[in-house]
Structures are given as C-alpha cells and as structure tokens.
Write a structure and sequence with these properties.
With about 150 residues, the chain is of the alpha+beta class. It has 3 helices and 7 strands, in the order βββαββαβαβ. Helix content is about 25%, strand content about 35%. Strands 1, 2, 3, 6 and 7 form a 5-stranded mixed sheet that branches. Strands 4-5 form a two-stranded antiparallel sheet. α1 packs across α3. It starts with a strand and ends in a 5-residue tail after the last strand.
Length: about 150
C-alpha cells in the first residue's frame, strides 16, 4: 500500500460536478493498493498518518499530529501510485490491485482510518473520474509505502 499525504489548508473532491468530500485544514491522503495489502498494512499506515507530527506548534515547529490538533483527513483512491515506468513511456499498472479487490481495500482502509482518527472521514468516489483540488500548506508532502516499514 502506498499513500501520498499532503498537508492542506483546504481540499475537495468533485465527481460529476458534485462535491463528494471536502475539508479545511488537515490532510489529503491519496491511497493506492496492491493485491498483497492486508489489515496489518492498513493499521500501520493509518497509525502513521494520524500520528505524523507535521503540524506546527506554538513555536512554529512541525511537532503536532492531526489527532492532536483535531484536523480532518480527506481520503482519495489513486491506483496510479503503483505505476511502473521502467519500460517505455506508457506507465504499467500491473502492480495495482484489480478494481473489485481495490474497492474492498479502499473501503476497509477508510474504516480503519476513521476509527483511528475517531471521526468521520470524507472521501472520493472509488473508480470515478474525480477532480481533486487542494491548497498544499507548506508545501508538505510525504510518501509512505507499507512495504518499506523497516
């Protein structure tokens, strides 16, 4: 499982000209899944996301987590995080989970993340043509891969 985490002052997802999820200050999380991803991966990444100390304290130092400051998370599925560009110029997505499995993984991860944050988490629409808007704060962007825990 791979995620791209962006600290934002605002973010939203629009599908068919309708807002399906939006937040103010917090984290936009783009999540991509592989067939081998499991509950251990979801829990590990969820804990990382919720406890990353990337929000400023009173001294302006990135020292506080999303949980500590009470900010929100917007979750968006993005299979292209598993793009392989080793050969040619057309990315291969062979490492990404097939749609039926990925939908299940996405929904499971959404539940784990909401439970960890202890509040509802707005999200995009799996498999839809989404328009994602954000204002990156910092900019702060972090990439985490559950296969690189060590």
């Amino acid at each position: 499982m791979k995620v791209v985490i962006q600290r934002v002052t605002e973010a939203s997802v629009v599908v068919d000209e309708k807002v399906t999820g939006n937040i103010q200050r917090g984290l936009l999380v783009l999540a991509g899944f592989e067939e081998s991803d499991n509950d251990e991966d979801y829990t590990w990444i969820s804990n990382k996301i919720c406890n990353l100390r990337i929000f400023n304290d009173d001294q302006g130092v990135m020292n506080l987590s999303c949980i500590e400051v009470g900010y929100d998370i917007l979750l968006v599925s993005q299979f292209t995080l598993h793009a392989s560009t080793k050969k040619g110029n057309r990315p291969s997505y062979i490492n990404a989970s097939k749609p039926d499995l990925a939908r299940e993984q996405y929904l499971t991860f959404h539940q784990v993340l909401a439970s960890n944050l202890n509040k509802p988490i707005p999200k995009g629409v799996f498999g839809a043509d989404m328009k994602v808007s954000l204002t990156n704060d910092g900019p702060v962007t972090i990439i985490i891969d559950s296969k690189n825990k060590a």
